[in-house]
Amino acid sequence: MNARLDHRAPLVFDTRELGRRPGALKRISRSVAAPKDLGIEVIGVREDATVELDLRLESVMEGVLVTGTARAPLSGECVRCLEPLERELEADFQEMYSYPDADDRSREADTGDDAEEEETLFLEADLFDLEPVLRDAVVLSLPLQPVCRENCPGLCAECGARLADDPDHQHDVADIRWASLQGLADAMRDGEKDNAPRDRGDDPQEK
User: Fold this and answer.
1) What 3 state SS string does 175-203 have?
2) Residues 67-76 pLDDT 10s
């Protein structure tokens, strides 16, 4: 069993005004502090950053259908040049929160799909927690490979310099196809020096 929901928590919402009347609607706008770890390794919403929520709560036979949009600032780094970047995120989502007794009714028409049953979210004392739905919506909306710009050239593979700051940046690199021949040529020159005849004046045997 999960811990009881706290109606004072910023991402917990009350549906009592709907009164289980199918077709009843309620709209909510709320600014909340972003929970921890709302993102992926390279980009996400910083903890306590402001998330703007616009929600539409609709009462249906099975429970409450929640449709909404979340807007929040993103912070991360470019995967090519590692420079920090800032973006604005807008993520849409929709989720059904079922009434607790809807579980009993659903068992009568059970299809045997255990995975689907595990994913069902339920109201608790007419409250629902939006955090897991918000987290999924934000993460699925994030770019997996964020870049500071589409044509970011990245970093130099040799020295790590940011290529956008120096478009003409380059290094003199010897052609690896000639590397072995160059080594052989150097060895031959060293051998020629060792075998070169000495001047007669340098021969210690000559008197």
Assistant:
1) CHHHHHHHHHHHHHHHHHHHHCCCCHHHC
2) 999 999 999 9
